[in-house]
Amino acid sequence: MWSNKVSIIILSYRSLEKTKKCITSIKEFCVGFSYEIILVNNDSSQSQAIQKLYSGDSTVIILEPWYNTYFAGGINLAVYKASGEYLALINDDAYFVDDSLEKMSSFLDQNRDYFWVTWNIYNDNQERSLTMTATKLPSIWAEISRNTVLWRLFKWIWSPKYYQDYMMLNRDREHEDADVEAGCDAFMLLRRKEFIEKGVYYHKLRLYYTEEDIGQKVRELGMKIRYLHDVKIMHTRGVATKTSPSSKILAIGISDRFWYFYKYSGMFTASIVTFSSILWNPYILIRFFSVCYWLIKLSGEKYSIHKV
Fold first, then answer.
1. What angle do CA 41, 20, 205 make, to 5 degrees?
2. Which of 9, 113, 241, 249 is deepest in the core (most CB within 10 A)?
3. Strands 187-191 and 114-123, how do they pair?
């Protein structure tokens, strides 16, 4: 028997004010069911402040790995501490504006063949623009397209059919529900038991390809992912990555891309996709030596946490 309906997992990294805003929004809008908040502190410099804020809060469980576990490692750590039937994975720079989490948990209650439900994610900017989330799993050509200069061409001028199919450009994200193959992990709600059974996140990943990794698990389970148009969350994009050197973030993207495709498509495909994204991406070429430095440094870094 689950002691909580939802375990809400938040990773905090150099963004204490955003984390506070996220938790405040949870307490304001998530009132229709039982939940716990598992706060993973990936920045030891803010440990004292976090303890002062939440150590006496019975709804908040604080985990201190004492080094940066990144996104995937931190989630994997928290999953085994969770008691909820469902897991809500939410970025610390996202926040609720309505009772959407209750609506999503109700959907999973009523649809046992769905593993994961995602929703509209709006950027916290003046335009309140909608993030283009929820796609199919990437083919090799779609992956090369979105990680090279071709992406600009396809986005603004012309999109071949394989790119349109991958991005699901023919649907109205603001007004239509749809079954998708991958969502956006700025926020997602999924089934805890099945996630653990499939091995949680691939331990080689840090920040990227986590939603595709879960999408592959859903496919292996023979279950589905649903995109709901009438629920939403606000997201301030790139808060954590803006505090790190751009060359490091590029290096993490290269590493995560390689390991994702290595796991699911083999060495040949992983090599083709990785080298294409390097050779055809001016942002990487301009910072080539700095990116190489970070790739070497990251290769010896401790970040992944297995079951404890």
1. 35
2. 9
3. antiparallel
- Long-range contacts (CB closer than 8 Å, 24 or more residues apart) made by 260-267: 260/202, 260/205, 260/208, 260/209, 260/212, 260/213, 261/143, 263/202, 263/204, 263/213, 264/216, 265/140
Looking at residue 109, its pLDDT comes to: 95
81 φ, ψ to 5°?
-95, -10
Q: Which amino acid belongs to residue 224?
A: K
Per residue in 160-219, pLDDT tens?
777 778 888 788 888 899 999 998 877 899 999 999 999 899 999 999 999 999 999 999
Q: Please give the structure tokens belonging to residue 200.
A: 């949680």
Tally of residues, the chain: 308
Of 110-114, 162-166, 235-239, 275-279, which has the strongest mean pLDDT? 110-114
Fill in the amino acid letter for 100: S
The model's pLDDT over 128-157, given as tens digits with 9 standing for 90+, comes to 677 777 889 988 887 877 777 666 666 666
pLDDT above 60: residue 239: no
Show the CA angle centred on residue 195, arms to residues 189 and 196, nearest 5°. 135
| Count of CB atoms situated within 10 Å of the CB of 285 | 11
3-state secondary structure labels for all residues of 83-121: CEEEEEEEECCEECCCCHHHHHHHHHHHCCCEEEEEEEE
According to DSSP, the β-strands at 35-41 and 60-63 are parallel
* DSSP letter, residue 165: H
